[in-house]
Amino acid sequence: MRSELIFQTPYWFIIFCVLAGLAYAWLLYQPQPAWGKKLNYALAAVRGIVVALICFLLLSPLVRRTQSSVDKAKIVFAIDNSESVGKYGQAAMEQVKAAARELNDSGFEVSIESLEGTQNNADSLAFNQNKTNLAGLLQTVRTNFEGRNLTDVVLLSDGIVNQGVSPAYNRYPFRVNALAVGDSVPKLDIRVKDVVSNRIAYLGNEFPLRAEIAANGLQGKSTTVTLKQNGRVIQSQPVVIDRADYFKAFDFKTSSAQKGVQHYTIELGAVSGETSGRNNRKEVYIDIIDGRQKILLMALAPHPDIKSIRSVIEANDNYELDINILSIANNPPASTKQYDLVILHQIPNVLGLGNTQVRKFLDSKMPLFFILGNQSAVPLASSLNRSLFINASANNQIDKVTARFNPSFTQLNLDAESLKLLERLPPLSVPFGEYNISSGTETILYQKVGTLNTNKPLLVLNTNGDQKTAVLAGEGLWQWRQEEFAQTSKQEVVDNLFQKLIQVLSVKEDRRKFRVYPISNEFEAGEQVAFQTEVYNDIYEPIFGQEVKLQLVDEKGKSKQFTYTHSKETPRFNVSGLADGVYRYAASTTLKGKQENVSGQFVIRNADLELSNTTADFGMLRDLARRSGGAFITPASLQQFIQKLKTDRPADRLDSTEDMVELIYLKWLFFLIVVLLGAEWGLRKYHGGY
């Protein structure tokens, strides 16, 4: 370290500091002391030095400190310790460890990184990782050695990548030297390359699964591909391998009468001559749900709006729609049937059809969407919807208005720019009168009369309280959809608006006070399963300290019991050591003397990505080395590469850091002044001075 004193004032100001010290010492020690002259001179010198030093510090001098360090050239051995490298990597590790020792003895700083992270003990490295992300491995190296003198990375790998992007297309601030291991000759093998399926299917519906089968060098042979559920064969198809490089997709269709996650297996029959049978099957997990939200569209009479609303709803498979036209059937649905949303078109109305049914819907707290029309009983509708109040004219006069979006409305995350289209669409027929909204109601669309913008609401939404309601004050929605298609050849803006409105009205809110759920619906084999726990009081404030009992049951009916205490510091409970398959869980706790229960399910997948391809990709490794300026090497040429590194050894880097601080902030000066003044004062007191 090198230090340099820098003055912020003219350096000759030091003379005044010295004079101040001399003057102070002379005035204090001029009288004849009670002690000897030598001691008097010593005490005067101490006082003068301290005063001069304090005056000097008041000039705010700076100290510039420069510290230099040597950053040695660094070499990182990045080890792809995946299962596909296996025995080839284990055989090459002895050479890698010897090369690391040799480089270290030559003055390099050597580190070993793997897919699991930094390896302090290379002897304990096991080639058992079930996935390979080489781009992630090299990015980790880049992050760990950011700003360091890292010149070369030696990547031991077979070039097989089954997760993340190919590393060949990334840029690195170091040379990547590819140490290629493995067998680049395709093995005689047939395998289930992939299975394409939906993650979710509906109860009783038929759904597809596609099995992609690949084979190498087994032409002329045949087998079968089978779809199974819990060991039961559902369907089989013949597989005839007609060429050396074989690939074909096989489509299956099935359905399930059981709710929950269902376990399916795509399995290939064994073929003589194949090297491995482990990749002849793949597990598929599909969540069968009976989760369609039930919507009732009840209308006074046939109307073009009904078809438009039906098209908007049926565009989403999650909805199950019932339509009831009262003037035709005059049989309102039973009030006992529970709907997630009821859409009331011109109900209540002046004819009295369905008016009593609306009160039953209100009593059952079902979400309601009122659409007013020319036959609506406006005063009764205003009293029942509890959101929009219309004081209509006595002669039931109607008005023609277009729509203007309220940019202050943010609950549905709508695009204000695209909704400007509504101002160019045909007008709706709305009751003429005074409009008011209740507390908690938000306006989505305002009425626009000609070119005049008004503050009268056209479409409102209220999600506060126990019952959600929305009101559209006019009819003519069908004209909006037709005109939008005429102008844009699409029906997106209007449909998106009402689809989101229906979604927010029909979605069920979770009002449970006790919740336990896994942080993901799917986990990989060997991964810890984390359960999030939430407990609330009567006003839905989080509370802690409850004992929670958790039970896990696998597909074979084997159960495991756990007990833990929910706390603010540890809101998650982790479970490890679970095999692949479908698990059902049940959790319980006691709140105010009452037992609360929650249940669910999750899946642990054993992807076996390493088995889907075991043919080394040396072409990718060559491309990676070429793009980064490195070399493509084999275990046989590793020693030659190490000698080249030693011969062309990169220079060590000299790093310097410089900082500047005011002298007055140095702590050791403070303590020096305190010691000097303390010593002077102590000697004066000891010899009888004051």
From TrEMBL:
It comes from the Bacteria. The keyword Membrane applies. Keywords: Membrane, Transmembrane, Transmembrane helix. InterPro entries: Class_I_gatase-like, vWFA_dom_sf. The chain crosses the membrane at residues 12-29, 41-63, 663-683. This is VWA domain-containing protein.
